[in-house]
Description:
CATH superfamily: Aldolase class I
Helix content: 40-55%
Strand content: 5-15%
Structural class: alpha/beta
Distance between the termini: 18 Å
Radius of gyration: 17 Å
Number of helices: 13
Largest sheet: 8 strands, parallel, barrel
Bound molecules: phosphoenolpyruvate
CATH architecture: Alpha-Beta Barrel
CATH class: Alpha Beta
Oligomer: single chain
Shape: globular
Number of strands: 8
Amino acid sequence: EQSRTPLMAGNWKMNLNHLEAIAHVQKLAFGLNDKDFDAVEVAVLVPFTDLRSVQTLVDGDRLRIKYGAQDLSAHDSGAYTGEVSGPMLAKLKCTYVAIGHSERRQYHGEDEEIVNAKVKAAYRHGLTPIVCVGEGLDVRKAGRQVPHTLAQLDGALKGLSAEQAASVVIAYEPVWAIGTGEVATPEDAQEVCGAIRGRLAELYDQQTADGIRIQYGGSVKAGNVAAIMAQPDVDGALVGGAALDPDEFVKIVRFRD
Ligand code: PEP
């Protein structure tokens, strides 16, 4: 779909301190030009401690790189030691926040209810959620990747208006392909991304569904991104490991070259 601007987002996970973050974003700014930014939206999802430094650099040099966080609290303030709120991220002018990444689900027990509450917290403060969904290896082996992922989608988006849903980003990340070097085939990615768009049309309407960006994530690299991006319902990539190398991430942004 020509009407959907691809979104390439780097998920740094727990890597790069604030000094490394500045150097990294400067390298991206050197490597990318206006033509790239006209064609593709570029974002980095960074550790909380990097956000202020990234904001200062992006603001000061008017960079077209967007940035955001990898998680947020479902609560807006209060006695939640160690958490970071939506208002705090909004104050730092974050565009995006990843929600329900498989590592949050796996290591921090995030269930559908928490993911849904965090999505609503993001919308309360003008942040765009990148909602991560996707099946584990056992579910894939049982051939249940579509119903499993659609159930996660339903849970994450529960109670959202069509207007809110219109700006959401969905990241389909099969857990067995994250950080494993095992990339889903383009056909595997399309199967589930297409099913996600079909469900979005059922939940809202076709026009809304056609406008929503659906990313694929799972061992995306410069060498495999073009084939995945060629699929009709894949509108971008959520990139972990390969996003830690700025030269590689620039090549991913230039997937059409
Ligand atoms: C991710 O963290 O969202 C991810 C897809 O990681 P990787 O690209 O390293 O598989």
